[in-house]
Amino acid sequence: MLGVISLALALIFSLAAVLCFAFPSERTGRWGRGLAVLSFVAVLMASIYLLVLIFANRFDIAYVANYSAIELPVIYKVSAFWAGQQGSFLFWLLIHGAAGLYLAVKKDLPPAGMAVYMGLMALLTVLVMAKSPFVPSEAVVQNGVGLNPLLQDPWMAIHPPIIFVGYALLAVPLTYSAAALLTGQKAQEWLPAARRWALVGWSFLGAGIFIGGYWAYKVLGWGGFWGWDPVENSSLVPWLTVGILIHVLRVAQIRPAAVAMVHLSAIFAYALVLYGTFLTRSGILGDFSVHSFAGTSIGMTIAVVNALVLVAGLLLLIVKAKNLPQGEYYPGYDSREFILLLGALLLVFISTIIFLGMSMPLLTQLVGKPAAVDTDFYVRTTMPLAIAMLLSAVCALLRGYGQGKVLAGGMPLWGLGILGLACGFAAGVRQIMPLILAAAAMMSVGAAVLAWRKNGIKTGGMTAHAGLGLALLAMVLAGSGSQSHSQDMAVGEPYDIYGHEIVFKGQEFAADLKEKYYIYMVDGQEVRARTKLHANGSDAAREPAIAKGLGGDVYIAPSPAKGNGGLEMVLKQGRMDMDDDFAYRFDKAEIDHQENGTLLVTAEVAITDGNKVEQAALNMLANADGGTSQPVEVFGGQKRLRLTGITQNLKQIRMEILPALTAEISQPITTSVSVKPCIWLLWLGSIMVCIGTLWAAKR
Amino acid sequence: MNRKILLGVLLLAFVAYAGWSFADSVTPYVGIAEAQKSAGNVQVKGLLAKNAPAPHMEGDNFIFTLQDEETGETMPVRYHGTKPDQFDEAYHIVAVGRYKEGTFESDKLLIKCPSKYESQKR
Question: Which of A266, A484, A663, B21 has the greatest CB tally within 10 Å of its CB?
Fold first, then answer.
């Protein structure tokens, strides 16, 4: 209740603030700023309340029941705040509100801009209320579902909030642009501030994307860091668009005529943030994405908000277009201005390709059968454009603003290009396009450093540009240069794979039986692949083992057979059934109603090896959602039995027969081994992009 | 004027490039019956067939049988890769590839598993 009231207050306050700022005067300005502060406080209250609900294990609230659980560690209880759609929207709103608080206190933005900003806040509040995290559970829930074990990773805990900080901050450049259009503010007055906000937002969104990629590499075990999934693309496209914004902002600071492009890219950047949210949260792409989202009614609401922002922004731009500064965009083709704009156009092309690719199911549905593009499409199609973009970056970096001002000659760069080519070749890349990309990436690193030494670019910009070059080089080396091989590995046998000696040492269970590890020796270095286990002992999340090295990673993903060599058996009461070693008979079962509403099912099973008979009582705790059970050892641990199901009349059970723990530990295992040359360069480059961009945002 | 011609040429070149790339790689979503008839790349969504040989590796390929959820038809799939990690927990499988001589040759599998945006049964 408190949550809903806080959200309603936030909506009222932000709408009232819009009214105040819409009729600017000394007094309404004060009122408006006060209301902006109050609306943030209201959202803060709602957020604190959600955290309190999570920590109090209030499973009568559907959101808490779906994303938290009693036994969840503290860090993941905090991250449950943004683990689900409803909570992540609230977090987005919280950051939007916090930035609004800053803007209200700093008084940088004219009243018209504050009105637009608070209007966006009201729209976001409506989104949160339409899909509220405070809705009560439909049924009585004893314990929450908890967080998907794959997502219980520190990187995944911080990935969503960082993305959403980026999303939220991108509203500020849009607001500066709208304010300038509404009031006719001079470009030089607002461009620096808009650029700083865009840089910070870009850095956060980029960091979020990179962290997501790193998590996918470290946890998911398929060996990649980017899958071109709609969910990933929907954050990449706004990131690329803000990349355009940052560069045209720079041109507009020198050539005011380019301000029109700033407006256009600011509007599109934010509209694309909303579009991505719509695409991924509406369930429309349910059949096309590996992230399965439940289709929800919120899709329409987001679509309307999205259309509203885009249409209103573009209309405003068209109406006010005649007031915009006129003049030349660039003095000639041999100027940094021209090449920057050319590079921005190439980025527009890349974004358009990805945008159309991820929207393809939606677009084709309008005209007929839904269709999608395969992921190779993105790589194939964007690679030539990326090469052209890198080369234009090289040319732009080597030139100054104004016609024909060459800062440094490009001769040394050819050497670097050949080095990039050689690195690619050494990593095993043989296709021509990736090799050229590697060369262009190395040249862009060199150009950034050259330009920095000639004062053509500041330290932040140099770091970010060099980082991007290194990251793209690493994508070629570790992506196109990656090789993969599947091997059945017996315990203790050395295998020579891609020049590495790899030995599977067997499995080891953690003391609390919540995890187990597949242990490998790679060239004498021990690495462990962790598998998180469900309470009943089955695999919950399987992570790879990674042997890191300067030359690259050896990436090992164990792929055990289903049930770890176990056998499932259905037994009718009184009937005998056999596996290779023993015979089993189900005698009787009973059900005990527990105080907390769960059922304790006990089934008695007799086991014999032909000579000796043993009795075992198998237990299963059942509730409305299903059951959990522990394996029971029989015949001195030679087999482990686990009850997995029972019919309602108690006449038939289903049971899993697992081999002895010692046998399971030393089973041979199918293992996928791949090498990822120089992948550490990707992480280094990514960090450089984010840090460099933040550095550039400094006054 | 010069500027507009340049922009026009660049845009035209891009439209041609994008159009050609898309025409080359858009893969329609079809059922099993249609997948068997179609000559090009398609995406087929289905479930893992229960009454069929167990999924297994053959060399560097992963073999399983896909079943159409609506019609119940089945089709063997040869995936050019190792078994995807979440294969056992999948409730839907989308195979991308083309039908060739009785087998669906697939280069890509989408495994649809419960994600963070959907409650997961334990």
Answer: A266
Cβ within 8 Å, pair A371-B27: yes
The pLDDT tens digits of the residues spanning A237-271 come to: 999 999 999 999 999 999 999 999 999 999 999 99
- Inter-chain touch A373–B115, beta carbons under 8 Å: no
Contact criterion met (CB < 8 Å) for A292 and B82: no
> What confidence tens digit (pLDDT) does each residue in A291-342 have?
444 445 667 777 888 888 999 999 999 999 888 888 888 888 889 999 999 9
Tell me the residue type at B118: E
Q: Name the class of domain A1-147.
A: mainly alpha
CA atoms within 13 A on the CB side of B108: 20
Nearest to A292 among B84, B96, B115 (CB): B115
State the pLDDT at residue A624: 59
Task: For residue A152, give the 3-state DSSP assignment.
Answer: coil
The answer to whether the Cβ–Cβ distance between B26 and A360 falls below 8 Å is yes
List, as ranges, residues 468-497 from A with C-beta within 8 Å of B: 484-486
Please tell me if the domain spanning A1-147 has the same topology as the one spanning A564-660: no
Instruction: State whether residue A672 sits within 8 Å of chain B by CB.
Output: yes
Q: Does A145 touch chain B (CB under 8 A)?
A: yes
Angle (CA) A535 A540 A542, round 5°: 140
Q: Is residue A123 predicted with pLDDT exceeding 80?
A: yes
- The two tokens of residue A386 are 């990326």
Q: Residue A537: which of A617, A628, A443, A654 has the closest Cα? A: A628
Sign of CA dihedral A207, A208, A209, A213: positive
How far is the alpha carbon of A678 from chain B, nearest alpha carbon, in Å? 23
Point out the least confidently predicted range of A27-41, A412-426, B3-17, B47-61.
B47-61
Indicate the fold that domain B28-112 takes in CATH.
OB fold (Dihydrolipoamide Acetyltransferase, E2P) (2.40.50)
Q: Cβ of A466: how many Cβ atoms within 10 Å? A: 21
Least confident of A37-41, A278-282, A616-620, A649-653: A278-282
- A380·B21 Cβ contact <8 A: yes
Cα–Cα–Cα angle for A168, A173, A176, rounded to 5 degrees: 125
What pLDDT, in 10s, does the model give residues A591-606?
Answer: 888 777 778 888 999 9
For A451-483, the pLDDT digits (tens) are: 999 988 999 999 999 999 999 999 999 988 888
- Chain A / chain B CB contacts < 8 angstroms: 125
Contacts of A63 in chain B (CB under 8 A): none
Give, in degrees to the nearest 5, the angle at Cα A481 between A477 and A487.
135
Q: CATH top-level class for A564-660?
A: mainly beta
Residues of B whose CB is below 8 A from A357: 22
Residue of B nearest to A360 (CA): B26
pLDDT-derived band at A211, boundaries 50, 70, 90: very high
